[in-house]
Amino acid sequence: MRLAHDARVKLYYTPTSPFVRKVLVTARELGLADRIETELLRPTPTKADPTLSKTNPLNKIPALILEDGSALYDSPVICEYLCSIAGDTTVLPTAGAARFRVLRLQALCDGILDAGILHFYERAHRPKELWWGPWLDGQREKALQGLDALEREAASFLDSPVDLAQISAGATIGWLEFREVFGDIRGARPTLSQWYDRFAARESMTQTAPRA
Known about the structure:
alpha+beta, 4 strands, Glutaredoxin, single chain, Glutathione S-transferase Yfyf (Class Pi), Chain A, domain 2, 8 helices, 212 residues, 4-stranded mixed sheet
């Protein structure tokens, strides 16, 4: 399946979403960025966006609208679709141990983000006197354990071709530092930090940096 020469798709996005960023970085690494039209939506945990709800009943972004009007969501599905139409086997290997390593690390990064976002929302959307301490501590613990696991994997990133595991890790660290969810996450993770500084300088990352 390939996009026709003049075919375009539409991505519902918000510029602060790390899951959106994962999709946008993937598109740039695959040379597909000019085929994607973006439309800004700002759904919140407490109020569904009616436009987005028509496309994704879960009211989550990103959502990708195809030429025939059908939709794909969420970010792992969209990234796999982009790799398929690009004929790529490097960003997302098609089979075997290499594929499942990338998928596993993508799932790890998505889980870190899930915990970080829940922690962020608790503090951002509830009065301070109602913050649930054990909940915040639990989400923090899960996210930091996930980052420790990434530190153990990071040496394999340093001189490897860009893949979806690296893209996911870059979007994850970028969002955690952008939102300052857990303070300094670098001190105990030198290899991950070294890799991230190099990866963050890629054009695909600088062009998709989150902004408030």
